[in-house]
Amino acid sequence: MLYNTLGKTNLKVSRLGFGTMRLPTINSNADIDKTEASRMLTYGIENGINIIDTAYPYHSAGIDGNGNSEKFIGEFLKENNLRDEIILQTKSPSWLIEEKTDFDYYLNIQLEKLQTDYIDIYLLHSLTVPDWNKVHDLGVLDFLDDCLSSGKIKHVGFSSHIEVDYLIEILDEYPKWEVVLTQMNYLDEYYQSGVMGLNYLKDINVGSMVMEPLRGGRLIQNIPNKIQELWNTSDKKRNPVEWALQYLWNRNDVDCVFSGMNNLNQVKENIRIASTEDIINENDQELIREVARTYRTFLGNSCTRCGYCMPCPHGVDIINCLTEYNIAHMMQDPKASAMQYFTLIDDDSRADSCINCGECIPFCTQMLNIPEELQKVYEYFGSEFNHF
Predict the structure, then answer these.
(1) Model's pTM, two decimal places?
(2) What is the mean pLDDT of residues 13-33?
(3) Residue 86 DSSP label
């Protein structure tokens, strides 16, 4: 495993971090397969991963739920006597904070779930501009100061899917920020805070962490022929996972990349790649840019399957509706995708069940107008499998 210094924290972090939003499950998102997840974490730690990322809502039954990811991680670290060997990162649910006492309320719940008396890195989770304004007015900076002084939190930061101007505004507000987690992959260089945000973090020596390196799996699944033909032109042969991860690890403004792995083979593959020095030369970089340009010509929408929009109060399977729509566009095979759409998604869960209530919109990390996107899905596939 290769390691980087995480900005001004001076922590030595494995360049591959273990994200726990997509752990394997049994019956539902809230029902973590503890046996398989433990095998994955054990292998990852034994092979060099030293940082784990979780959050209050991960693996919950509902969008605002008290998730089971933190609880599972706490149990795993305690049972294996690993707490002091792991850099543990979790996040404050900013959208749930309504009054000043809520900061301590949720932190104490998280400390209890994680079975620890301190958190190495505590992030304000998925900050939007309204959420930042709200928590700022409620005194979040005083709260962070107190937590740093007491030792409950060792390092502070935030995660976000905002534009670079807002990112810089938040960073400039508080000199004690040490870590920021943003979305980045070779399709998103100029999306959200993008490369400009990474460059700014590097300039001010704030630790830079990356999420969605594979864009929710979109960059490695169902590879269109045009894309694979482009990859095949490279003198050095790499699989799509290698291209996506090495693109990030060849940047000097990325300290750690979190992967939401959900099976042991993914853990093994990602660790193999993370343990390899692989230089992306100028020809490779130009090829990556050409692949990105080609992808953008046929993406249906920018959904990454993060799941923040779920569950829909009216039962729409938002994630899979948008996924099948995207696959149809990317594979340029609407008939095959329609078969999947009507086979895998129940009648009452398809796009035509959306009543345009708009409750999902504020939670979309990609800033999609989800009801509008679901209308496109409905118009594309129809309501019965007789359209093609």
Answers:
(1) 0.80
(2) 94
(3) S
